[in-house]
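From the pipeline queue, job 12 of 40. The input is one protein chain; the requested action is below.

Action: predict structure.
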Amino acid sequence: MDWADQAARILLGARSFLIMSHIFPDGDSIGSLLALGLALARRSKEVMLVCPDDIPEAYAFLPGIDGILTLGDAKERLAAGNKVDLVITLDSSDLERLGKGADLIPGNACIVNIDHHVTNKNFGTYNFIKVDAAAVGEQIYALLLALGVDIDRDIAMCLLTALITDTGSFRYSNTTAETFGIAAKLVEKGAEPAVIAEHVFETKPFSSLKLLGRVLDNLELSPDGRVAWVSLPQRLLDEFHVDEAQTEGFVNYARMVAGVEVAVLFREEPDFKVRVGLRSRDRVDVSRLAERFGGGGHAKAAGCTIDGDLEYARRLVLNAVHEELRNEPGNETDGTHSEGHV
């Protein structure tokens, strides 16, 4: 039995759902969350959609976005006796990726884990992990077909947003013929790529662009030219009144430098932690690097969090990057892992 048919049978056997995206939500996690929620609601299911972090303003245009609950709202509903037959986690390689959302999961819950990260820990009761999917949005599309859901414009907009964001507008190596085929069908259903691009890529707050300029002024390059990194101290976020969501994509500028194999973003957080974003071209599997520090992701895009200050995080991670580069023949990938966001 195909995985989507198996998953559909499980979902059709439940009445009420708690569906969660991950911390630091991106277009794939939010688009997939909304698409699945809209589809199940149209099958007369009771659905609670939860995002454990603030949703970036760039995704405010998506249909159904106002229906996503905060952690506080979800806790109140559960405390009031709202029943949950099935918990569905999306785009999350482990329970830690859910942040405080993991606290909402009842101890005896049946968990359906739908993900495309090679580092997934298979924490669910049912694990549907498809590492060759360009985005979880691809998996949700297949699942909706198996459920017999009529994909309308609203669902199509959410799913196309998932695909566009996790493939870098179809530029990343995780993009396949199947990805283009699904995208074409979503456009036929009414999804508008130009509208998605306008909101997600072509509209930025003035303050975030000013911050980007300051960050790029401090772009650093290793002596051999193979590693580039940028640092984002908390004081800069405070100075420019920019939240973390608006810094998504900053690491890609470091990756653009000619000759660079690995790019790193070090983003300081208020609680003496540093969020690290890793990007690779071809030779280094950065998911393996991230796993060394308790993180995960894809071969070409991964992340982790380091306890400590910026200087400590830079020294620790950059040493590990250079070690991987020295051993790069053993790090060649077979092309089955996707790029995507983490």
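Job complete. Residues 227 and 322 are 8 Å apart (CA to CA).
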